[in-house]
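Re: the 335-residue chain
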Amino acid sequence: MHTIIIAEAGVNHNGDFELAKKLVLAAAEAGADFVKFQTFKADKIASKSAKKAAYQEKNINDGDDSQYAMLKKLEMPIEWHSQLIKLANENGIQFLSTGFDNESVDLLDRLGTPLFKIPSGEITNKPYLRHIAGKRKPVIMSTGMANLKEVEAAIDVLLENGITKEDITILHCNTEYPTPMEDVNLKAMLTIRNELNVKIGYSDHTQGIEVPIAAVALGAVVIEKHFTLDSTLPGPDHKASLEPDELKAMVNAIRNIEKAISGTGLKTPSQSELKNIAVARKSILAATKIKKGEIYTQDNITAKRPGNGISPMRWDEVIGCTAIRDFDFDELIEL
């Protein structure tokens, strides 16, 4: 089992190409599989009258409630893409970006992106979903703010327009930054899998790394998590993002969980613990000196370590037997 880990740089580059490059390197150093940005044109995705979300207003706190103005500052220039792709490839990590409009999707397709990530806000955008499906590439779709019927309807649009169910992974998600723990509802991820028969994952906006790790233990095959170089930087998502050392800790923990849940499921001693059976278990020993021919009783035998003699599970079988020779105190009993 190998969980796909997407380190979501998103718009945490703050419009600074040098910062964007550092994000790629940090994601690679942490061991993530993908580093993901966001590709959009503000003119294509928000009207001039669109307001910021409450969390964006709080995190930016610049006195301007315009979502359009915020997005305009965070657009990722076209020329960055090929350079960031090259940098990612040189450092052993794959580049992804979420295209928020058809033009951006086309750009990413031309650049050879291996899959498309559909953000939560586009799950009810049928023309956009059709356009993505027409690319015939695997799709990972977040489902923040959606109910199960909306998720199913979006999947149907993808299926009707050329994507196979095997190429769809659905991420449970909560679109609040940061997400309160009591609103995570991680069991909904399992409902998506059981009801819609699709691969599942989790896109996390909580603070910390516990919930993505729990999601992997429950069966997530994809984890997406925002990260930044510095959570105190200005911008809409920095405060709900991991810093590089936290991202690395999350990746390492997920890799350990993968090992921990990859066993056969049979309850049997592992190779590493076999050597400890004799050390930790007990055997039947002489509680006193016992003479040859003496009867074993509750008073002259006991159970102590080591465990390389007769198991105390045979206690009732031993009681009443005759000693075959003399036994010293604490000596292993023989039958």
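DSSP finds 13 helices and ten strands in the chain.
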